[in-house]
Amino acid sequence: MIFVSEIKCKKLKTDNLILNEFLDDAFNLKSHLMEFLSIKECDLDDFLDNAKINLANLHPGDALSEVSDFYTEIVGDRHVADLAAWHITSKDYIADTLKLQQKFSRDLVLDFGGGIGTHALANAMSSKVEHVFFVDINKTNRNFVEYRAKKLGVEKKLTFCKTIKDTKILKFDTIICLDVLEHLADPASQIEIFNEIMDSNTIALFNWYFYKGENNEYPFHIDDNQIVERFFKTLQLNFLEVFHPILITTRAYKKIK
After folding, report:
1. Global pTM?
2. Do 133 and 166 meet the contact criterion of CB atoms below 8 Å apart?
3. Could you tell me if 166 and 135 are in contact, meaning their C-beta atoms sit under 8 angstroms apart?
4. Strand order from edge to edge, sheet including 129-135
């Protein structure tokens, strides 16, 4: 496996430039969407405007036997649309999460459940990051981010995997897991896995939103009290929070030695 230390990468940028490029056009996201999904510009806004409700309407509710099935078998390109709409309409908030990862990201980075790739692409542009392992169970997401990486010229700094085991990396220096834990059937087990692939200097960035919404607009989120309580007990048992002043909804953690 070849990492960036072994290649000449011409796309490395300063933190400020990376943030400015995201705030300008979300790393050229609309153009990438139109090309990847073969959507005309005149149809793109409607596609994005209806993304959240279209994704929610796809969810089969209690009939869903496995949570992962929703993201591997059902969502199609609607998950890409929903994530794109969120990243475009919430650029200031997303920019704060990018500032946070810029503070901590270094060397080998795991981006778990990386969606449309905003954070993975930003990390790949950073001179402090050697390589990014983008892990997402949704094949469309992986293909879309690989397409974007080539367009942005950072494909040599990214590896695309379906599972963490596929990365073949035993320890990561940075773990990014944003807007993912609330989608998992057992988020506590997932952070236990993260703990196993962290060393004493690894920093993990987590956030969560265990809430289905006032009108069930997020039916794909977990809100079971027992599951959520086990998550917080596991978090407190295994991780120590690292203070940062950037934003309150995303936390930084190191493992308890």
Report:
1. 0.89
2. no
3. yes
4. 158-161, 129-135, 107-112, 172-177, 198-206, 251-255, 239-242
190 touches 216 (CB < 8 A): no
Contact, 132 vs 111, CB < 8 A?
yes
CB 12 within 8 A of CB 126: yes
The CATH number of 13-255, from 3.40.50.150, 3.40.50.920, 3.30.70.100, 3.40.630.30, is 3.40.50.150
DSSP string, 10-48: TT-B-HHHHHHHHHHHTTTHHHHHHHHHT--HHHHHHHH
Tokens of 245: 């002043």
CA angle 228, 231, 233 (to 5 degrees): 110
The segments of the chain whose pLDDT lies below 50 read: 4-8, 55-60, 63-64, 69-72, 74-75
The whole-number pLDDT of residue 35 equals: 94
Which pLDDT score, from 0 to 100, does residue 74 have? 41
Amino acid identity for residue 21 in this structure: E
3 state DSSP class of 154 = coil
Q: Quote the tokens at residue 151.
A: 């367009």
Residue that the structure tokens 């998992």 belong to: 184
For residue 68, the model assigns a pLDDT of: 52
Domain boundaries, the chain: 13-255
In the numeric block, the tokens 């990438």 are attached to 32
DSSP labels, 113-139: T-TT-HHHHHHHHBTTEEEEEEE-S-H
Question: What are the start-end ranges of the E strands in the chain?
Answer: 107-112, 129-135, 158-161, 172-177, 198-206, 239-242, 251-255
